Design the sequence.
């Protein structure tokens, strides 16, 4: 592996370490702060609001006016300081505003880091998967410290009395509970902030990716160039399906930690249990290029969407701790086979000068419009099926499962992209290369 690919891998590791440090337990923490469903929805939707900004401003700014690696450095510094402050924030408005600041600067870096990778890889369709999987490794690594941070150390025997093996087993089996566990979860924001500031410094060592000025007579706003592509039928179908799949995806992060706790998973094992999906994603990303070659775009994406339906169906109908943990393996398949495939599809089919903005357009769906709707729907639905203070997960998870099945059917029937062709801005596929 050459030096450039190593840097791109480290970039992806840190980029997703930040997100993976705080997101899995966020709703559980917000419930502990007694925030209402609407307040929780707005905090989660800081990402969605930031994605709108990214579509209309940030990706265009990086695309046309700014070196991408410097944009990432500045954004991660400001965003890192904001999320660091959440460690000590417990009131809704300061919490929401700090989260919004973090997201406004963090969200654009997701598409920009993808663009940096695509711009510096010789064969993105084959090489992007292995580079991107380091983002997954970063997400998994973010969960490891909390296996120990969320231990009730007051109940653990000293190591010199019981030996290392017994001490380790005792520590891993002695989770914090109640108020103590809630207080410790706030350190997820501390870890995320430190990682963000670290990426800000590292970004200055990334390959120089210069701005690409708009061509003479082209659109001054790059996102408008990407929007024109929605006139192409198969692009519009993918746009709609991505919206539904992103909304379903949001339900996983809204309620899975609470569900796992309800079926008996200890507090210090919630993040590792959810990270099983990312472990599966590593293997899936490694073979994604092969799957795309053998199955094609449509069937690969359909499998990814149906994974959501299967996982939520198991959550709803089979509330068993071991099965609930094991079925999280589908989460990685869902991400790689749909979302990662969408990013690769965009790079394959969209014109070169609008490619980064097209990434931002689909990020608007994956991180914006879909989660914005889901962020409120799943929070209010959770409250609606709560009886005597307990969420009825058998009812809650049937809804996202049904939506996923519907999205898969739409994609299977109506999504028919041409093979090895790029989309022209006039709204028709270009001749085959």
Sequence:
């Amino acid at each position: 592996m050459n030096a450039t690919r190593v840097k791109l891998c480290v970039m992806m590791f840190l980029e997703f370490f930040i997100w993976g440090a705080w997101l899995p337990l966020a709703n559980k923490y917000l419930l502990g702060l007694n925030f209402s469903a609407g307040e929780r929805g707005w905090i989660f939707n800081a990402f969605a609001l930031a994605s709108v900004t990214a579509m209309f401003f940030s990706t265009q700014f990086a695309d046309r006016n700014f070196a991408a690696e410097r944009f990432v450095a500045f954004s991660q510094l400001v965003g890192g300081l904001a999320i660091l402050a959440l460690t000590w924030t417990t009131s809704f408005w300061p919490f929401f505003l700090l989260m919004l600041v973090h997201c406004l600067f963090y969200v654009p870096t997701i598409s920009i880091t993808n663009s940096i990778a695509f711009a510096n890889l010789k064969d993105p369709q084959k090489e992007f998967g292995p580079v991107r999987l380091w983002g997954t490794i970063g997400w998994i690594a973010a969960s490891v410290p909390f296996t120990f941070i969320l231990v009730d150390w007051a109940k653990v025997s000293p190591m010199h009395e019981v030996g290392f093996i017994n001490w380790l087993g005792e520590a891993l089996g002695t989770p914090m509970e109640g108020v103590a566990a809630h207080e410790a979860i706030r350190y997820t924001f501390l870890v995320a902030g430190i990682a963000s500031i670290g990426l800000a410094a590292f970004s200055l060592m990334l390959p120089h990716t210069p701005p690409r000025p708009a061509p003479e007579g082209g659109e001054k706003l790059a996102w408008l160039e990407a929007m024109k592509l929605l006139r192409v039928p198969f692009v519009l179908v993918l746009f709609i399906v991505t919206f539904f799949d992103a909304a379903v995806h949001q339900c996983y992060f809204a309620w899975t930690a609470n569900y796992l706790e309800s079926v008996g998973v200890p507090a210090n094992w919630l993040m590792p249990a959810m990270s099983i999906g990312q472990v599966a994603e590593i293997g899936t990303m490694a073979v994604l290029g092969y799957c795309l070659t053998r199955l094609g775009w449509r069937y690969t994406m359909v499998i990814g969407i149906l994974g959501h339906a299967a996982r939520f169906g198991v959550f709803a109908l089979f509330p068993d701790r071991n099965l609930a943990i094991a079925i999280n393996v589908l989460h990685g398949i869902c991400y790689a086979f749909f979302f990662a495939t969408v990013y690769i599809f965009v790079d394959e089919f969209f014109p070169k000068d609008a490619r980064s903005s097209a990434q931002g357009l689909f990020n608007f769906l994956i991180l914006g419009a879909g989660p914005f709707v889901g962020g409120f729907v799943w929070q209010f639905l959770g409250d609606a099926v709560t009886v005597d203070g307990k969420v009825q997960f058998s009812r809650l998870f049937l809804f996202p499962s049904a939506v996923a099945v519907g999205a898969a059917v739409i994609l299977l029937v109506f999504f028919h992209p041409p093979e090895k062709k790029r989309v022209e801005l006039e709204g028709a596929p270009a001749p085959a290369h």
Summary: Confidence is low (pLDDT under 50) at residues 425-433. Strands lie at 386-387, 390-391.
